[in-house]
Design brief:
heterodimer, A: about 150 residues, alpha/beta, Rossmann fold, four-stranded parallel sheet, about 45% helix, globular, B: about 600 residues, Ubiquitin-like (UB roll), FAD/NAD(P)-binding domain, 4 domains, five-stranded mixed sheet, 25 strands, about 25% helix, about 20% strand
Chain lengths: ~150, ~600
C-alpha cells in the first residue's frame, strides 16, 4: 500500500459539551472534513481512562485525538479538563515507550464555538498521520505474544 | 424625676429638677441669646450672653441661664432693664475684641451697638475664648488635643505649645461647634488627593435617597467614636455619641454588630453584580492627578440631587465647567485591560453629555470608538444628543494631560477626519469598564460555578439556558453573569427568580440518569475519587469503609470513574464495557457484512 493511498483510521474522544458540539456544528455547517476520524462521545474528557486510548491503538487506530473544553473556566463540570490536563502528558510519555510516535496522539481544547478549528484539526491531523504511515500496533502486539 | 414650678417672664412653668434655666427656656420657646452653649456639652458660662435676672427667697441677682439650675419658686426675668444693660455691656466687650465677626456684629446690632465701644490692636481676632471647642475635644472626642494656654490678655486656644500635634485626629468637631468660625482645618497637600472628593460627607448618613430601609448608617471609618476606639484599642470607648444624645427616638445603638444569619434554602440566585474597573491602571488618563478627572460613577454622584453639590455639575473649585470631555471605553475593548465591551458606557455617557448640556450649557466632546446604542429607544436618544450640539469624535481618547493652569488636555484620534485632535477642557469624565468583583472566585467555589474567561460567572448555555448554572438550584441574575444595562438586568433577574420559583413549586428535582455508582464490594476505600469530584457528590461511609455517590449532586462527568484504581465506580450510560465496545466496533466488521465480502 503506497502512502498516497493510505487512509489512516483515527479515533476521537470528545467531550459532550465543547468539542463534540464543535464537531456537530462543523458537520451541520458542511465544513470540509476528512472521513478518517471516528468520534466517541463522552460526557467529559475527565472520563477518559488512558486505557481507552491504548485500546484504540491496540484495535488498529493510526491516530487518536482527545479534545475537550478550554481551561480554565470552559469545562461544563468546572474542572474535568484540568484532570485531562494532568493525565495526558503522562500518557504521552507512556506511548513513546510503547513505540508509538508523538505525532499519532493529539490532545487539546476546542470550544463549542470553534467548529472551524475542529474541521482544521481533522484535516491537519489526518495529513500528519498519513505522513507517519500505518501503525499496525495490533500486529506488533500479536507477533510479540507469539 | 421630681418636678418644680417656677416663673419665667411672668409665666408659671413646670420643669424637671436639675435642668438649667436655659434648657427650660428653650423647651418653652423663650429665646435667650448664647454663643458658648451646646446641648450635648457641659455648660461653661463663658460668653455670659445668656445672663438673666433671678429672684429667690428675697435675693435678686444676675446669673448665666446656662449654668443656673431651676428650683421651686424661682422667679426668672429674661428681659428686664438690668438684663438688657448687662448684655449690652457684654456684647460691647465682645465686639471690641472681635469687631469683624458677623455673628457678633448681628447680635450687637440687636442690642443697638453699631460700633465697637473700645479700640483693639488685633481687629482680625475671631476667637471669643468661649471654650466650646475645648469641651468638644475633651468631652466628646476625648482626644484632648486643644486647650487654653497662657493667661489674661494673652490667653489663647490651641494644641500643646501651639504646634502640630498627633493627638488631633482631624475629626473637625471643633470647627463645627465654634460659634464664630475661628477654627479651620488645613489639609496638607498630599492629604487632599487621598480624600475622596465625592464620598460621603458625614460619618452618619442615609446611604442614598432610595435606600431601603431609609435609615442613616454610621461610617465606622470616619465616626469619631469608632475611630477613637480603634486608635486606642478600645481604651476610649465612649467618645462623642453626640448623635445618641440628640436623637429623641433613642434609635442609635453603637453596640449593634454585623450578624451572620443561617438559612436553609431550596434555591439560590447569585446576583453579586459588578465593580468598577480601577482607572489608575491606565496611567495615560491621569486619573487621580486632578480632581476634575472623574469616573462615570463619580459624575453620577455629582449630578445626583441628593449628592454633595445638590445636583450641580461643578469643578473641584466650585466653578461651572465650560468644556467637558467624555472618553468612552476606558478599560473596555482594550487588550491591555478588558477585551469585552462593558455595554452600558455608551448610553450612560450620552446621558451624561445630555445632563452637562442641560445643567451647565458647556461644550461637550465625546471620544468614542463605536456608538453601541443597541436598546429600545437608544438610537433615538443618540440622535437627540447629537442634535443638542454634543461634539462626537470617533476614535479612542488616547491621553489626558494636566496643564499648569489646571486645564486638562485630551489627545485622541478622529478616525473620520483621519488625524490627531486635541481638546483643552475643564473636566474629563472617564467611562470606566465594569468588571467581575475581585472576590468572584470565592463565590464561584462556594457554589461550584464556572467562570468565563472574562471573569463573570458562566451560564449553563449561552443561548438556551442564560440564567441557569451547572449547579442545579443556583441561578444567575444581572451583571454577575456579564455586563448588562438596567432593562436587561431586570429581565435577566426576573427570569432567574421565576426559574428559582418553578423549581421550588415543583417540590422535586429531576436528575439525569447518567450518574456514577460505587460497587461497594470492589471499593478499597482509597478516597482518590473524593478529592476529584467537582460537586462534592462523593462522601465516605466510615462504617462501611467505602465511597458513596450522592446521585442528586452527581452530574455524571465520569472523572471519578476514570481515576478509580479498583474500577469500583461505574458511569451509568458510559460504562467501561460500552466505551470499549464502541472502540472495538470501530475496527470490526459485523459478521453479516463479512458475508457480503466487506474487507475488515
Amino acid at each position: 500500500m503506497s502512502d498516497k493511498t493510505f487512509e489512516p483510521h483515527i479515533v476521537g474522544f470528545l467531550c459532550n459539551w465543547c468539542t463534540y458540539t464543535a464537531a456537530d456544528t462543523a458537520g451541520v455547517s458542511r465544513m470540509e472534513q476528512p472521513p478518517n476520524v471516528d468520534i466517541i462521545r463522552l460526557m467529559c474528557t475527565g472520563r477518559i481512562e488512558p486505557a481507552f486510548i491504548l485500546k484504540a491503538f491496540a484495535e488498529g487506530a493510526d491516530g487518536v485525538i482527545v479534545s475537550g473544553c478550554h481551561p480554565p473556566g470552559d469545562c461544563h463540570y468546572n474542572s474535568g479538563n484540568f484532570k485531562t490536563f494532568r493525565r495526558m502528558p503522562l500518557l504521552e510519555r507512556l506511548l513513546e515507550q510503547y513505540g508509538i510516535e508523538k505525532g499519532r496522539f493529539h490532545w487539546g481544547w476546542i470550544s463549542g464555538a470553534e467548529a472551524p478549528k475542529w474541521a482544521q484539526l481533522t484535516r491537519d491531523f489526518t495529513e500528519q498521520v498519513r505522513g507517519l504511515g500505518p501503525l499496525d500496533w495490533k500486529r506488533q502486539l500479536e507477533s510479540k505474544e507469539d | 424625676m421630681s418636678m418644680v414650678t417656677l416663673t419665667i417672664d411672668g409665666q408659671t412653668i413646670q420643669a424637671e429638677e436639675g435642668q438649667t434655666i436655659l434648657e427650660v427656656c428653650r423647651r418653652n420657646s423663650i429665646s435667650i441669646p448664647t454663643l458658648c452653649y451646646h446641648p450635648v456639652l457641659e455648660p461653661f458660662g463663658a460668653c455670659r450672653l445668656c445672663t438673666v435676672e433671678i429672684a429667690q427667697g428675697g435675693r435678686n441677682g444676675l446669673q448665666t441661664a446656662c449654668t443656673y439650675p431651676v428650683s421651686d419658686g424661682l422667679v426668672v426675668n429674661t428681659s428686664s432693664p438690668a438684663v438688657i444693660e448687662a448684655r449690652r455691656m457684654i456684647l460691647g466687650l465682645l465686639l471690641s475684641r472681635c469687631p469683624n465677626v458677623p455673628v457678633i456684629q448681628d447680635l450687637a446690632l440687636e442690642y443697638g451697638i453699631k460700633e465697637p465701644p473700645f479700640p483693639t490692636d488685633k481687629p482680625e481676632e475671631d476667637c471669643i475664648l468661649c471654650g466650646l471647642c475645648v469641651r468638644a475635644c475633651h468631652e466628646l472626642v476625648k482626644a484632648g488635643a486643644i486647650n487654653f494656654a497662657d493667661r489674661g490678655v494673652d490667653r489663647v486656644i490651641g494644641p500643646p505649645f501651639l504646634e502640630k500635634t498627633r493627638d488631633c485626629i482631624g475629626c473637625g468637631a471643633c470647627t463645627i461647634v465654634c460659634p464664630t468660625g475661628a477654627i479651620q482645618i488645613v489639609l496638607e497637600k498630599e492629604a487632599i488627593y487621598k480624600e475622596k472628593p465625592l464620598g460621603p460627607t458625614s460619618a452618619i448618613y442615609v446611604p442614598s435617597l432610595q435606600a431601603v430601609p431609609r435609615v442613616p448608617v454610621i461610617d465606622t471609618d470616619t465616626c469619631i467614636r469608632f475611630r477613637q476606639q480603634d486608635r486606642t484599642s478600645g481604651e476610649i470607648e465612649d467618645a462623642c455619641g453626640a448623635c445618641q444624645i440628640v436623637c429623641e427616638a433613642g434609635a442609635i445603638d453603637f453596640t449593634q454588630k454585623d450578624e451572620i444569619i443561617e438559612l436553609d434554602v431550596g434555591t439560590v440566585v447569585v446576583a453579586t453584580g459588578f465593580e468598577m474597573w480601577d482607572a489608575t491602571k491606565l496611567s495615560q488618563y491621569s486619573y487621580g492627578k486632578s480632581p476634575n478627572i472623574i469616573t462615570g460613577l463619580e459624575f453620577e454622584r455629582l449630578s445626583n440631587a441628593a449628592g454633595i453639590t445638590g445636583g450641580q455639575i461643578v469643578l473641584a473649585d466650585g466653578r461651572k465647567p465650560e468644556r467637558v470631555a467624555i472618553i468612552h471605553c476606558i478599560g473596555s475593548r482594550d487588550h491591555n485591560a478588558h477585551e469585552y465591551c462593558s455595554r452600558i458606557c455608551c448610553m450612560y455617557s450620552l446621558k451624561q453629555a445630555h445632563l452637562v448640556k442641560d445643567k451647565t450649557g458647556a461644550e461637550v466632546y465625546e471620544f468614542y470608538m463605536d456608538m453601541r446604542a443597541f436598546g429600545k429607544g437608544y438610537e433615538e436618544f443618540y440622535e437627540r444628543v447629537q442634535e443638542e450640539g454634543v461634539t462626537m469624535i470617533r476614535g479612542r481618547g488616547a491621553e489626558v494631560d494636566v496643564l499648569e493652569n489646571g486645564k486638562l488636555r485630551v489627545k485622541g484620534e478622529d478616525a473620520n477626519l483621519g488625524r490627531l485632535v486635541t481638546a483643552d477642557v475643564d473636566m474629563v469624565v472617564l467611562s470606566t469598564a465594569i468588571q467581575a468583583p475581585q472576590d468572584a472566585g470565592k463565590i464561584a467555589s462556594l457554589f461550584g460555578l464556572g467562570r468565563t474567561p472574562d471573569g463573570f460567572f458562566a451560564e449553563a448555555h449561552p443561548k438556551l439556558r442564560p440564567v441557569e448554572t451547572n449547579t442545579d438550584g443556583v441561578f444567575l441574575a444581572g451583571t454577575a453573569q456579564g455586563p448588562k444595562d438596567v432593562p436587561d438586568t431586570v429581565a435577566h433577574a426576573g427570569a432567574a427568580a421565576s426559574m428559582a420559583l418553578a423549581l421550588l413549586s415543583k417540590g422535586e428535582v429531576t436528575i439525569s440518569p447518567a450518574t456514577a455508582i460505587v460497587d461497594e464490594k470492589l471499593c478499597s476505600g482509597c478516597k482518590t475519587c473524593i478529592a476529584l469530584c467537582p460537586y462534592t457528590a462523593i462522601s465516605f461511609l466510615d462504617d462501611k469503609n467505602v465511597a458513596y455517590v450522592n446521585e442528586v449532586l452527581c452530574k455524571g462527568c465520569g472523572t471519578c470513574v476514570a481515576a478509580c484504581p479498583a474500577q469500583a465506580i461505574t458511569a451509568r450510560h458510559f460504562t467501561e464495557e460500552q466505551i470499549i465496545a464502541q472502540i472495538e466496533g470501530l475496527f470490526r466488521v459485523p459478521d453479516f457484512l463479512k458475508a457480503e465480502g466487506v474487507p475488515a
